[in-house]
Amino acid sequence: MKLVLATNNMGKVREFARILEPLGISLLTQQQAGVQVQPEENGTTFAENARIKAMAVYQATGLPTIADDSGLCIDALDGQPGVYSARYYGEDTPYTEKNRYILSQLEGLPQEKRTARFVAHITCVLSPEQILDCEGVCEGTIGLAPAGEGGFGYDPIFYVGDKSFAQLDGEAKDAVSHRGKALAKLYEQLKKLQEN
Q: Active site includes 169?
């Protein structure tokens, strides 16, 4: 099966490919599909934004399309940055600065009060009548300092156990991550469809 991945985020492209290609699902990037659609993500939930992106790219290509909207939700910040994770503290602000800003907002807060979660909602449009939705959540904490060289985005400050996402290799991260969990659910849904 081949799906167009509705994103221009190369970190997401790498994660999706690493998880899906061993399962026999190949991906086309938007660029490979010849489409440069960048719909306005004006939904108020991860599900709404994933649907907006998936439908826009599906309508532009006519090909089965997968999109995700994901973000970091920090309890001490009332769930922020949430659906605004990519635009939090300025859309063009580098993540090193965004991470520093979040750490400054949590300064002095003990580890047990630094609870957070990554949420990923994935929408797969096979046709206008056949749309699949899956969600994955990874519980963790915000560390006291960034750590690790891997991953992207907020990975250096998000900890599962004693390691940040940026300290985990791809396989270890995929086994526990929000996106890995959501894609595993999607794979099961696609497998059931093929069996029927």
A: no
